[in-house]
Amino acid sequence: MISFVIPAHNEERLLGATLESCRSSAEQFGEAYEIVVVDDASTDHTSELARARGARVITVNLRQISAVRNAGAKAAVGDRLFFVDADTVVPSAVLDMALQALGRGVVGGGAAVKMDRPIALWVRLALLSWHC
């Protein structure tokens, strides 16, 4: 089973697209999956939106991203964990490549960042150094 673990703090604006992309990608491959949203002290409707879209919500007040991810990992029941930021879309091609890599014995990885709208030059330059 795949467990998508999504740490979130006040992410109601973008979380819906993230949840939909995880669901759609997993279902395209016929994979059993769960989506665990770890709501870290949100003051908006993050938890309600996540539940309405079929995610299991874990509520924490940690305010440290690694601790929030770890709380999600502890709650997850899948044997393959995918940590996804709450503002990230997971294309089915990326999930396919990740599942293939896991099948070959890879134990960790990441993906390139592609912005969905124009970004400032300084951000583009920073991303270039991050992708090295």
Question: How does this model look, in words?
Answer:
With 132 residues, this protein is an alpha/beta fold. 43% of the residues lie in helices and 18% in strands. The mean pLDDT is 93.
Key traits:
single chain, 132 residues, alpha/beta, four-stranded parallel beta sheet, 5 helices, 4 strands, 43% helix, globular
Summarize the structure.
Helix content is 43%, strand content 18%.
Task: Please state the structural category.
Answer: alpha/beta
**Secondary structure tally, helices:** 5
Give the strand order of the largest sheet, numbering strands 1, 2, ... along the chain. Answer: 3-2-1-4
Low-confidence stretches: none
- How far is the first residue's CA from the last residue's CA? 32 Å
Total strand count, please?
Answer: 4
Strand content: 15-25%
The overall pLDDT, averaged over residues, is 93
Radius of gyration: 15 Å
Note the main sheet: 4 strands, parallel
Shape: globular
Q: Regarding quaternary structure, how should these chains be classified?
A: single chain
- Series of secondary-structure elements, N-terminal to C-terminal: EHEHEHEHH
Helix coverage percent? 40-55%
